[in-house]
Structures are given as structure tokens and as C-alpha cells.
From TrEMBL:
UniProt keywords, alphabetically: Carbohydrate metabolism, Galactose metabolism, Metal-binding, Nucleotidyltransferase, Transferase, Zinc
Gene3D superfamilies according to UniProt: HIT-like (3.30.428.10)
Keyword Nucleotidyltransferase on entry: yes
Organism the protein comes from: Cryobacterium levicorallinum
Pfam families: GalP_UDP_tr_C, GalP_UDP_transf
Record protein name field: Galactose-1-phosphate uridylyltransferase
Pathway stated in the Swiss-Prot or TrEMBL entry: Carbohydrate metabolism; galactose metabolism
EC number: 2.7.7.12
Catalytic activity annotation: alpha-D-galactose 1-phosphate + UDP-alpha-D-glucose = alpha-D-glucose 1-phosphate + UDP-alpha-D-galactose
InterPro entries per record: GalP_UDPtransf1 (IPR001937), GalP_UDPtransf1_His-AS (IPR019779), GalP_Utransf_C (IPR005850), GalP_Utransf_N (IPR005849), HIT-like_sf (IPR036265)
Span list, region Disordered: 36-58
GO molecular function: UDP-glucose:hexose-1-phosphate uridylyltransferase activity; zinc ion binding
Span of domain Galactose-1-phosphate uridyl transferase N-terminal: 56-217
């Protein structure tokens, strides 16, 4: 099957969030997303750094045992590792810090300097069936795009530490970038995510996430497609109905429900689904984005309230591929953390790491009760802070 042009969704723009497009010294794209109540000028400083050569596009190699493609991106080996705040590459540029972002900002999105995919977006047309074919020594160029999403100009924090207004701006950036990236040639799937905490492997403390745009449908999504073929197109609707009827629900609004899944693998694992079939952020409504900014922030603040210190996690927003399964794969958050106690982490040992056969340490029902209680504590603390005038 040869790639067909992606079906372009009708993207609804929030006109209260302004966009300012720019280009970095080496030609990479930079987009500013301004809060509705921003005090920033729409005029942004140019990037006056000396232009440097962009990283070469990496090469993918196929694992013939699984058919999966592995991007060998050696340029990432020398990326910045936990720099001091004075040398934060995601902070606005200053006389002593020639960072990636020339001006002050609310939310900023730019092309990654050390990408796993790209900067070449399109190569010779690739047949998806050819990518699935198994062979020995097969290679392809790692075309695609990797972007960094800076949640705030502050040096430390996470999505949970944002104001509700700023959280909404980040979600708007996810939606618009999904819309734009899905239209690029060679892109098959778009994946927004946040890695939080050094225990997860984070190399920058600055509050940020990333968006990967892949030249293939990812292995996890291919497994999901197999499940849909076996079960039928109502899989997500039926999962949502089952979870909403359980005692594993964490939060439920008009448009979204968050829950600990029936077969949770991790000590802390929460999924969130929209109440209607939405393949990706680009096809959400403004009302859905508005509610998500409130519920998602509340969920993450609760995750941080489980213990006395912030919780490491991966917040993965699974989206339907660009060209296939748009009517049956639903946008879904899968948030996971290896933290199984105040001072203990779950490490993937033989069964999980080698065989993919998971053993849960906590029952999903007990985990849901713990997270619900933490979400309630965090909400009470936020309400108390608002009462005494302290920003939450």
C-alpha cells in the first residue's frame, strides 16, 4: 500500500492565544504561543548567534527479529546534561546565556538541535508495506521531525506547576503542532509527551515536553491496531464505559475521564480518554481543550501529592496515525511512573525487560484509591492557597 495524502482535520484555532513565528540562526523553526493575558510584546528579538551546521539526519536499522526500526542518532550522545540554571538552554537568552530562545516567552516550540528523527522530513517516497517487510541489514534514513515544547521561561517545574491559563496555552500548542506536523510529507504519526524527573532520565530540569513525528506507525500503535482487528471498532468506547463503571476512576468531567486501567503495569499508571471519538489533539474542540487544561493539571498535581517529593513520570499522549485508523483509534493519555514507594522505584527486571511479561506490584484498585486521595489533598491545598492570596 503506497502512502496516501493524510486527511486534513478541521483545526479550530483559539484566537485568544497569539502565535509568533521565527527562525533560529541555523534555520530551525521557532514558534511562540502567547497566553491570552500575556504582557509580552508581539515583537521578538532575532537569534543573533553565529549559525552552526545542523545535525545530519540519522539512519534507521531494522531489527529482523521483530520488524521494528531503530533510529541510530549518534548526534544525541553529546547533548547538554543537567546544566546549571545560568546555562539553561531553554531559558530566554541573556548576556551570559546564549540559549535556544532569543526572547522572553510564555510557551515556545522549536526544532530540536539533536533530533532522533530529521531534520530531513521527506526522503524518496516510501511504501508502508515495504517498511513492514523483514530483511537482514535493512536501513532507511530517519526522516521526521522532533520539537521541544517549553512550558514556561522558569528554570524548574513541570506541567503541574503551571497556572491554569498557561496549561491551556500548552495544550493549544500541542493541538496546532499536531495539525501542522501531520501535514508534512513522510510523517506517519505524531507523539506529544513529557518526561519528568531525573529518575526517568531527564537531562534538563526546565519544564518542557517534546513532540516526535515518526516516519512510520510505532510498534505500540501497531499492537493496538491488532487488538482493534480482533475486538472491533468499538474498543475504546467499550473500555471507557467499563472504566467509568469501575472504582478506578480518578477524575471525570464533561469531556474527559481519567482512570487507573484494569490491567495497569506500573505502580502509578493513569489513563485519560475523551468521551467521544477524537483521533488526536488537532480534532479536539475548544471546550475539550479548556476542560483538559483544568483536569490534566489537577491530575498531575495529585500525582505529585502522593509523596512528599515530586513524582517522576512519563506522560505519553497516544494519537492515531496520520493516514490510518482515524475513526477507531482514540486520543489517549497514558501516564506512568516507576515510583512504588517514597524511596523505591520499580526497575524492569528479567520478565518485564526481556520477555515483556509484566508483574504488577500494586492492585489497580488500591492504586486508584491512593491517587484519588492525593488529588483531593492537592485540590484542598490549592483552594487554601487561593483563599489566602497565594498563587497556585
Amino acid at each position: 500500500m503506497t502512502n496516501s495524502k493524510p486527511r486534513l482535520p478541521h483545526f479550530v484555532v483559539d484566537e485568544t492565544i497569539a502565535r509568533q513565528s521565527s527562525t533560529l540562526a541555523d534555520g530551525r523553526d521557532l514558534i511562540y504561543f502567547d497566553d491570552p493575558n500575556t504582557t509580552l510584546s508581539p515583537d521578538r528579538a532575532p537569534d543573533l548567534r553565529e549559525p552552526s551546521e545542523r545535525a545530519t539526519t540519522a539512519t534507521m536499522r531494522q531489527d529482523p527479529l521483530t520488524g521494528e526500526w531503530v533510529s541510530i542518532a549518534a548526534n544525541r550522545q553529546n547533548r547538554v546534561f543537567l546544566p546549571p540554571a545560568t546555562q539553561d538552554p531553554l531559558a530566554p537568552q541573556s548576556p551570559g546565556n546564549a540559549s535556544e530562545i532569543p526572547s522572553n516567552y510564555d510557551v515556545a516550540v522549536f526544532e530540536n538541535k539533536s533530533p532522533s528523527f530529521g531534520p530531513l522530513v521527506a526522503d524518496a517516497p516510501t511504501d508502508l508495506a515495504d517498511l513492514d517487510r523483514i530483511g537482514i541489514g535493512r536501513t532507511r534514513r530517519s526522516v521526521g521531525r522532533c520539537e521541544v515544547v517549553c512550558f514556561s521561561p522558569e528554570n524548574e517545574g513541570s506541567f503541574a506547576s503551571l497556572s491554569a491559563t498557561r496549561a491551556r496555552t500548552v495544550i493549544e500548542a500541542w493541538a496546532e503542532r499536531t495539525h501542522v506536523l501531520s501535514q508534512l510529507p513522510g510523517i506517519e504519526q505524531v507523539f506529544p509527551f513529557e518526561n519528568r524527573g531525573e529518575q526517568i532520565g531527564v537531562t534538563l530540569r526546565h519544564p518542557h515536553g517534546q513532540i516526535y513525528s515518526y516516519p512510520y506507525v510505532t510498534p505500540r500503535t501497531q499492537r493496538l491496531a491488532d487488538s482493534l482487528e480482533s475486538y472491533g471498532p468499538t474498543l475504546f468506547a467499550d473500555i471507557l464505559a467499563s472504566e467509568q463503571a469501575s472504582d478506578r476512576v480518578i477524575l471525570r468531567g464533561e469531556h474527559w475521564t481519567a482512570f487507573v486501567p484494569f490491567a495497569a503495569r506500573w505502580p502509578i499508571e493513569v489513563h485519560m480518554l475523551p468521551h467521544r471519538q477524537v483521533p488526536d489533539f488537532a480534532e479536539t474542540t475548544l471546550a475539550e481543550r479548556d476542560e483538559l487544561a483544568v483536569l490534566y493539571r489537577r491530575l498531575l498535581r495529585g500525582i505529585d501529592a502522593i509523596y512528599s517529593t515530586p513524582t517522576p513520570y512519563i506522560a505519553a499522549w497516544h494519537q492515531a496515525p496520520v493516514r490510518v485508523h482515524r475513526t477507531d483509534i482514540r486520543l489517549m493519555l497514558q501516564l506512568t511512573s516507576p515510583r512504588r514507594a517514597e524511596d523505591k522505584l520499580k526497575f524492569l527486571a528479567g520478565s518485564e525487560a526481556a520477555m515483556g511479561a509484566w508483574i504488577g506490584d500494586v492492585t489497580p484498585e488500591d492504586a486508584a484509591a491512593t491517587i484519588r486521595a492525593a488529588v483531593a489533598r492537592a485540590a484542598e491545598a490549592d483552594a487554601a492557597n487561593e483563599t489566602d492570596g497565594t498563587p497556585s
